[in-house]
Amino acid sequence: MNWDDTAPSTDDAVPAGPDRLVGADADGEDTAVEAALRPKDLQEFVGQERVREQLDLVLRAARARGATADHVLLSGAPGLGKTTLSMIIAAEMGAPIRITSGPAIQHAGDLAAILSSLQEGEVLFLDEIHRMSRPAEEMLYMAMEDFRVDVIVGKGPGATAIPLELPPFTLVGATTRAGLLPPPLRDRFGFTAHMEFYAPEELQRVIHRSAGLLDVEIEPDGAAEIAGRSRGTPRIANRLLRRVRDYAQVKADGVITREIASQALGVYEVDARGLDRLDRAVLTALLKLFGGGPVGLSTLAVAVGEERETVEEVAEPFLVREGLLARTPRGRIATPAAWAHLDMVPPQHQAGGIGQQGLFGA
Ligand SMILES: Nc1ncnc2c1ncn2[C@@H]1O[C@H](COP(=O)(O)OP(=O)(O)OP(=O)(O)O)[C@@H](O)[C@H]1O
Ligand SMILES: [Mg+2]
């Protein structure tokens, strides 16, 4: 559902497939176990070295001054640890945290109610801040800068603005789409942290840590195998770990070895690079039916029997990130890495074969 007509957001309408094992958004089971797996302080938080170091300085300095920490904006793809980091900020400051999200704030009044009930030093976590309504956003500007809001009482010519002082608080905003934030809002954050995808070694550490908390025995090779298929995302790493654990318990003695991890993820159709069935269907169609492209998005979508949006928003971002597919003005094309990944030979390399763009070019 689209709560907010100011943002040209399409992410809400996309069939992101909560049943998708490699989807980066949280599903029901994730929500239930994530609380247990969340690192509780900066020390425990794996990776994101730069962000961690900078945030550590910001928080230490604020603590030393006995002041409330500056507002923090966390941006990055789903499942990289924004919510986790917001809770860590509160914990490190020894402050309570209030959690809400852009879509939950439909009216400025909703925000005024939250702001006016904050305690001094409290952390207000505003998830999906890019989806807040415009009037609420404007109220937030003043609250962030001057710790003050104007509450409008009454309607029409008789309406009056009653200024309300707020206690100093720390706003932690999170967004998957930093580009959608209006500059005046972005500028009011004292510190902006951009979260990157995790390296396989970092994910391996995340997996080890989670396995410990879930009381699962895992060999380093087993963790490496899962890490390599987790698309740079801790949430996916934790989810794959749980599925591999199931397999290890049912089919083996419960210990996760490389062999077991590889077999289990084969059963769940997550390949060595983290592609799932949909991703591979798109690539396979692109290579087999269209000789590697270029081919239009709609044609490609019909070929795999999916909606355009599903191909564009669900499968393509990761394929592009992995350098397997490129979006060009003339259509989608496969990269040499795509041919290699599916163990296929590009047509121009075959004796007497047609050129890559021979049949379907333009
Ligand atoms: N650096 C990390 N170290 C260990 N675990 C992590 C780290 N980052 C994230 N996780 C784990 O990944 C899961 C997802 O993290 P989190 O909910 O913070 O992501 P998010 O960025 O808020 O995602 P979304 O955009 O969907 O809200 C949590 O279970 C958390 O424990
Ligand atoms: Mg979150």
UniProtKB/TrEMBL annotation:
Region ranges (Small ATPAse domain (RuvB-S)): 199-269
Q: Which GO terms describe its molecular function?
A: DNA helicase activity; hydrolase activity
Instruction: Please name the SUPFAM superfamilies in this protein's record.
Output: P-loop containing nucleoside triphosphate hydrolases, Winged helix' DNA-binding domain
The entry marks the following residues as binding Mg(2+), namely: 83
Annotated EC: 3.6.4.-
Task: Identify the domain of life.
Answer: Bacteria
- The answer, when asked if ATP-binding is one of the entry's keywords, is yes
Task: Print the keywords alphabetically.
Answer: ATP-binding, Cytoplasm, DNA damage, DNA recombination, DNA repair, DNA-binding, Helicase, Hydrolase, Nucleotide-binding
* Record-listed ATP binding positions: 37-38, 79, 82-84, 145-147, 188, 198, 235
Annotated region (Large ATPase domain (RuvB-L)), positions in chain: 18-198
Main subcellular localization, coarse class? cytoplasm
> Where do the record's region annotations for Disordered lie?
1-25
Domain (AAA+ ATPase) ranges: 68-201
One Pfam family named in its UniProt record? RuvB_N
Catalytic reaction annotation: ATP + H2O = ADP + phosphate + H(+)
Residues that, per the record, bind DNA: 308, 327, 332
Classification via InterPro entries = AAA+_ATPase, AAA_lid_4, DNA_helicase_Holl-junc_RuvB, P-loop_NTPase, RuvB-like_N, RuvB_wg_C, WH-like_DNA-bd_sf, WH_DNA-bd_sf
Where do the segments described as Head domain (RuvB-H) lie? 272-362
UniProt subcellular location: Cytoplasm
Q: Which HAMAP family does UniProt cross-reference here?
A: DNA_HJ_migration_RuvB
Biological role: The RuvA-RuvB-RuvC complex processes Holliday junction (HJ) DNA during genetic recombination and DNA repair, while the RuvA-RuvB complex plays an important role in the rescue of blocked DNA replication forks via replication fork reversal (RFR). RuvA specifically binds to HJ cruciform DNA, conferring on it an open structure. The RuvB hexamer acts as an ATP-dependent pump, pulling dsDNA into and through the RuvAB complex. RuvB forms 2 homohexamers on either side of HJ DNA bound by 1 or 2 RuvA tetramers; 4 subunits per hexamer contact DNA at a time.
* Domain free text: Has 3 domains, the large (RuvB-L) and small ATPase (RuvB-S) domains and the C-terminal head (RuvB-H) domain. The head domain binds DNA, while the ATPase domains jointly bind ATP, ADP or are empty depending on the state of the subunit in the translocation cycle. During a single DNA translocation step the structure of each domain remains the same, but their relative positions change.
Quaternary data: Homohexamer. Forms an RuvA(8)-RuvB(12)-Holliday junction (HJ) complex. HJ DNA is sandwiched between 2 RuvA tetramers; dsDNA enters through RuvA and exits via RuvB. An RuvB hexamer assembles on each DNA strand where it exits the tetramer. Each RuvB hexamer is contacted by two RuvA subunits (via domain III) on 2 adjacent RuvB subunits; this complex drives branch migration. In the full resolvosome a probable DNA-RuvA(4)-RuvB(12)-RuvC(2) complex forms which resolves the HJ.
Question: Which family would the database say this protein is a member of?
Answer: Belongs to the RuvB family.
**Protein name in the entry:** Holliday junction branch migration complex subunit RuvB
State the organism named in the record.
Answer: Streptomyces endophytica
